[in-house]
Amino acid sequence: MTIKIKLALFAFLALLLISGCASGEQGKGAQEGSSTEPAPANQNAKKGGTLNIGYPTQPVTLDAHISSNTAVKDITREIYEQLVTLDKNAQVIPMLAESYEISDDKLSYTFHLRRGVKFHNGKELKAEDVVASLNRWIRLSSHGKANFAGAEAKEKDEYTVVLQLKTPFLLTLQLLADPIPAAAIYPKEVVDAADDKGIKTYIGTGPYRLEEWKQDQYIHLTKFNDYSARTEPSDGAGGKKEALVDDLYFRFVTDESTRLAGIASGEYDIALNISVDNERQIEGNPDLQTFLSPGGLIAYFYNSNDGLFRNVKLRQAVNAIQNADDILTSAFRDPQFYVKTSSLVLPDYPNWYSEAGKEFYSQANPEKAKQLLQEAGYNGEEVKIFTTRDYIDQYNVAVVLQQELESIGVKVKLDVYDWPTLQEKLAAGTGWDIYPMSYAFRPTFYQYAFWGGGAGLLKSPELDELLQGIRTSESVEAARPLIDRLQQFVWTEVPFSLIGHSKQVTALSKNVQGFQNILGPIFWNTTNGK
Amino acid sequence: MGGYVVRRLLSLVPVLLVVAIVVFSIIHLTPGDPAAILLGEEANKAEIDDMKSKMGLDKPIYEQFGIWIWGVLSGNLGQSIFLHKPVTEAFFERLGPTLSLTVIAQAIGVALALLLGITAAKRRGTAIDQSVMSFSMLGISIPSFLLGSLLVMLFGVKLRCLPVAGYQPLSAGLWPHLKYLILPGIVLGVIQAALIARMTRSSILDVLSENFMKTAKAKGVKEKTIIYTHALRVSFIPILTVIGESFGGLVTGAAVIETLFNIPGVGQLIVNSISRRDYSVIQGSVLLVTVAYVFINLIVDLLYGLVDPRIRLSKK
Questions:
Q1: What is the DSSP-derived secondary structure letter of residue A38?
Q2: What residues in B contact A258, CB-CB < 8 Å?
């Protein structure tokens, strides 16, 4: 009897392994076959097929208006489109609009819509859809609430929409083109049926439409066959967009090691949010390639409204000990994964890049720091740094900062929380002194969300005046002196200490071509040669 | 026996009430809330407060508890904020993958454990016994995510026999269903096996030293018959207890393994809901899991009577 049981058991296990490995061998063979082919030339990339994307989190909603969640942005921008969008240099170009005009008083923006653009439900895009969507975005989105109070979109005729502002706003088009939170255009019926917690159906004009959302497993998008593409060549997030693969699967894989194993085994073609430490595994694998794109600004923010750090001398002291090289290498390992600059905006965006105040960046000057501590009257009080391990770069920054501060005799306590807890503790505005935080990359610094509500951010009439001045400038050229002054203000009043800008690491299979990252990954115009 | 079952089921009520209160308070006292999660990383406090009041989360906590518990009593566990469906529906959707995984893990675990435990007991004190016991010690102490990652590296990435993660329902076919569950099943199975094997070995050894065993041996009964028909049956009660407990643990969600292997089961639902602060799902799932756990224990207790006629519950 035992022998029978044993035999049956072994036979069962053996069967499982053999059948499994046999199919695995076939898969492997096929893959080797394709890699021996000449690298597919761009002009002749294979169409069709499927892209499997190992994506770290499930979006909290597919309503692009209400959320600034990254997953919401990355997935919804495949489904919906905006009136305008960004080219590869983050300049505004038309998308659903054929063209637009701005009145001389900068108060009304007239958009002429493209004709014959179809929604996924077959309906043609008309002005009423744009009016309904824009007005909802103004009412509910963080951009809308902060910058478009009193503004209203109106229908001029079937294919013309006028956005009427109360006050001139330099970044009107920039924000309408921003993918997060996107001024996505939904059909009017969807807007009418929606409540403030979200839309009920997910219909856009984009190259992909929603096929299925399997909660906590995947979102499946399929090619929208009636997609009306622009005729200009593809440029950044604009120009001609084409769904070159038939199916997109965003597979939600929270565990990074699983995403890595999945791309190494060929189950995923793209894996997002790879940490710089694990990038070595991508680099060392001949079937894979690393794709780098701007990640975000990283800084530590002081509680300038409560506690010790209301004292500017103390903020300056902590800023003086900062050694950006130490922090950046500890958080991001290698210079290819970060940009060391004192500017809030990367040098690639010259309109907003500014070197003002750079002498106060990365001073690494313990004597000066100690001197400032003394002037501030620091007397051994405990400095509380709050951070989270959910974003490992923030945590690494916190640890280096702790060491730096201890080296000049500051007593430090590091408190680590999960992300939602950290958010709530910081929002309470008291009980903490410093927190490192990263903000997703923006091509203009005006768009960083912390100006509007960063926890503990310095309240200063000068800062408000500068921001207001930039807001109402006629043009970016006219705003230039203010941009420099604001950058200078950041380094002298130190509402936060900028450390630098990180890069985002995406792992791609060698078969993937045409992938881009314009404020986040985009998957149209991307092919999979597998 | 009927009375016993009824009494056990009635004892569920206070248990569930305590669980409900504890879970509700822990979740609502934990910082972070669904409004902030929904609005995204860059939302400010005013926007979050606004959304909170739209979600009804600005009401006093006792009022929210009252609303929820009233719903529970009338059989409504509430609506998920993020999944856009009733909690019960979300939970039972996830029960399938968890049950499949449990059955596979438990089958692997029990088969392996009995094999090892009995072998070790038979060869007591020999090198085989030693190595079986070292294996089971290793099985108990190795963290499941480590074993899981190692197996994924070997079978998923190097040999490419098995998928590294994911899930296919049984409706997609038996093999597609099974192949996603083999690795996680092995990980959980090995860990269960380690525990059960130790219990099997020691309880068989206990029984073997009993007088009726010597009698059997003296009568000339074959060793195999002694072990499998007599010893195993008598020593099965403690083994059954361990099996029951581990089964309960598996059904109620192997959170780490489900997350690592991306299996949309109950454990993953609870973990994801906690990070989303999806209050009603966490509360509802924990209640349902508690019910499941109590039921499994009840079934195990009833099975005792089947295995060992001496403790038939109906006689009391």
A1: P
A2: 152, 164-165, 260-262
Q: Under 8 Å CB-to-CB from B158, ≥6 apart: which residues?
A: none
Burial of B146 (0-12, 13-18, 19+ CB in 10 A): exposed
- Cβ atoms < 10 Å from Cβ of A69: 25
Containing B93, the helix (H) or strand (E) segment is helix B87-122
Contact residues on chain B for A255, CB-CB shorter than 8 A: 165, 259-260, 262
- The tens place of each residue's pLDDT in chain A, 530 residues long, gives 445 555 555 555 555 454 444 443 333 333 333 333 333 435 456 788 999 999 999 999 999 999 988 999 999 999 999 999 999 988 999 999 999 999 999 999 999 999 999 999 999 999 999 999 999 999 999 899 889 999 999 999 999 999 999 999 999 999 999 998 999 999 999 999 998 889 999 999 999 999 999 988 999 999 999 999 999 999 999 999 999 999 999 999 988 999 999 999 999 999 999 999 899 999 999 999 999 999 999 999 999 999 999 999 999 999 999 999 999 998 898 999 999 999 999 999 999 999 999 999 999 999 999 999 999 999 999 999 999 998 888 999 999 999 999 999 999 999 999 888 898 899 889 999 999 999 988 889 998 889 877 889 999 999 999 999 999 998 999 999 999 999 999 999 999 999 999 999 999 999 999 999 999 999 999 999 98
Alpha carbon distance A482, A495 (integer Å): 17
Examine the domain organization and report whether B98 and B242 are in the same domain. Answer: yes
Q: Which residues contact B167 (CB under 8 A, 6 or more apart)?
A: A217, B97, B180, B181, B262, B263, B264
- CB of A245 closer than 8 Å to CB of A514: no
Chain B, residues 43-72, CB within 8 A of chain A, namely: 43-48, 51, 54-55
Contact (CB<8Å) B164/A267: yes
B158 lies in some domain: yes
- Cis omega (within 30 of 0) on the bond before A207? no
Q: What angle do CA A200, A203, A207 make, to 5 degrees?
A: 150
Chain pair A-B, CB pairs under 8 angstroms: 161
DSSP string for residues in A229-273: --SSPPBTTBS-----SSEEEEEE---HHHHHHHHHHTS-SEE--
Are B53 and B177 found together in one domain?
no
| Residues A162 and A298 occupy one common structural domain | no
Q: Which residue of B has its CA nearest to A429?
A: B45
CA-to-CA distance for B158 and B203, rounded, in angstroms?
40
Please state, in angstroms and rounded to a whole number, the distance separating the CA atoms of residues A330 and A94: 41
The amino acid present at B248, given as its one-letter code, is G
- What is the domain-level CATH number for residue B121? 1.10.3720.10
Q: For residue A313, what is the enclosing H or E element?
A: helix A312-321
Domain that holds residue B276: 91-309
- CA of A314 vs chain B CAs: smallest distance (Å): 26
| Burial environment of residue A116 by CB neighbours within 10 A (0 to 12, 13 to 18, 19 or more) | exposed
The answer to whether residues A45 and A244 touch, using CB atoms and an 8 Å cutoff, is yes
Residue A346: domain span: 7-14+294-503
Distance of CA B169 to the CA centre of its chain: 19
Same-domain check for residues B142 and B277 = yes
- A365 and A482, same domain (yes or no): yes
Phi and psi torsions of B25, nearest 5°: -65, -45
Per-residue tokens: A238 = 């604009």
CA distance B182 to chain A (A): 9
- Residue B80 belongs to a domain: no
How many residues does the structure list for chain B? 316
ipTM: 0.84
CA–CA distance, A209 with A222 (Å, rounded to integer):
6
